[in-house]
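Minutes, project check-in
Item: structure for the 215-residue chain
Input as provided by the requester:
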Amino acid sequence: MKKLVLASLALTCAASVFAQGTVVLNTRLTGTVVTHVYGPKAGAPGFSQIGNGANDTVAGATDWTGFTAISGASYLGALLSAPGQNAAEASLVLNAQTQSFRTGTAAGQIPQTTYTLGNVAKDGATGATLQLFAWDNTTGSYSSSAAAWTAWKAGTIAGGVSSVFNLNATIGGDLNAPPVAAGVNSFNLYSVPEPSTMALAGLGAAALLIFRRRK
């Protein structure tokens, strides 16, 4: 029994070491990708949209007028990942590594950064499914990506995610250099409604429906 436990532990440790593939995230690569992450919309903190604008590369039709790109060390980003392409969004795992945002004319963009993906194998030939998570850490209390994710979902801080995108390239590792993941599109941070607010909204909708039926 003891040997079985030790063997199981050894396999677990080996798998943990094995799943440490690397990718390079770049949201400002001239001629290939230029996208931005924006702060919450003024007057509408719960508003969310995703998509490239006219000044992005590749240019899109999403209107970012009135939004301000996030900037500096008070804003952080982390990658979610899954091995292989076309993985379901719900299967993506949030990685611990974080990176702050650029400033000035490069506001809204993350500097070129090599990320280690805890659940994607080194030198994997089937690529990966990725997503960028960004959040407001102005208070300094959410430097951990896991804590930030929980706080965002609870309505405590503003955060947001890009669309899920595929990386069709061999993952970096012992034999291969990390490939560039340039599939992030523009998106904005927003505040998720607190559960109490959502509950009140639901009760209001139910009351309105009952009122209409009675009429």
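Outcome recorded: The first strand starts at residue 21 and ends at 25.
No further action items on this chain.
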